[in-house]
Amino acid sequence: MKTMRTPRTRNVVTPKQTGLFVVGTLTLTCLLLSVLSLRADEAPLKIGVLVTLTGPFAQLGADGADGIKIAVDEFGGKVAGRPIQIFTEDSAADPDKAIEKTRALVKRDGVQLILGPLSGAEGEAVKKNADEWSNTTIVVAGAAAEDITMRGVKPNVWRTSYTGAQPMFPLGEWAFKNGYKRVAIVAEDYAFPYAQVGGFMLTYCHAGGKVAKKFWIPLGTSDYSAIFPQLPPDIDALYVALGGTDAVNFVKQMQEFGLLGKVKLLGGTVTVDASQLASVGELMDGIVSGSIFSGDLTTPEFKAFDQAFEKLRQRPPSLFAENYYRAAKWAFLALQKVGGKIEDQQAFRDALQGTSFNAPASPVSFDQYHNVVTDVYLNQVKKIGNEYRNSVIQVYPKVSQFWNISPEEYQKQPSYGRTFPDCP
Hints:
- With about 425 residues, the protein is of the alpha/beta class.
- It has twelve helices and 15 strands.
- The longest helix has 28 residues, at about 15-40.
């Protein structure tokens, strides 16, 4: 007996139905494209942050991260309608880690803007490898090794902080004029202190000063007892270019050896930063230093930033908090100019180069080598109220990374190092 099969029916689409289907498909496609376009405009701005959260500069890095937070909060967490998404990596003041973390931020997280790194050797390493991340803009927020923005400029690297030499040029002149005819130097042994010492010596030696002896110290040194017996007895001052816990340990041990107060001290930029003053301010009272930041400025921008940081950490802001804040704000202002379209890297970079504004420390702009032009302050540590702060004793407006020398002539000299420059 044969089984009866039910005839199959075909779904036949009439011309009228076909037209409706096409119209419906086109409408749905347009709606999808519209939604996708809207989402692209509102997609997060992925921004990487390189800071040092471990090692001797851990507190400086934490302050830098706080500076970013204050800037993001100031913009309400958005730029041109796009939410800001921050990816933070600890580079530990290690050049190799800085490269590794930059790769991770670009390849894994897809960032097209990086703020940082913090230390000089890291900054030099990132610049050297910058071609690897040609579609990512790097705004160096703390690292102050000179060659980051000279002797070859990368098209995707800017610096909003300073070169190590920049705030030292005025200090060298001031030191000689104020009777410090012969000094000794103690500094960490890497790129940033080379620039600090180099900038100081360039103007100090030119004025007629002499350097009796230099001590180059490994980063992270905790015991300085071998240095104190070697200090020349006839020096007028000791110039100290140490940072973070290195600076704290040094002044504590100077006190233990009975030298504090007997040997006058001049400070590098980060030696007497607010991070150190919060713990050993009394030991640093009276030290004169050069910086692009100070603790008693009176501008509305400084007061607002000072209050925001005090509210966050119950102490005055440090140089690194301001440096990372200004880097973030500088980038956000440039992104506003291009409607938040960070994907158009060339337009963003053109906007960044052309952006100037009043940072908490001073008015800032870029030179043609992508480095900040900023005011420099000679500060003296003083107790103001219940806090030790850097107080301005002299202002040098709009200081270039080349001081008063032409960029061409300046860049002909060797990069600063252990042996260059030296007093004649």
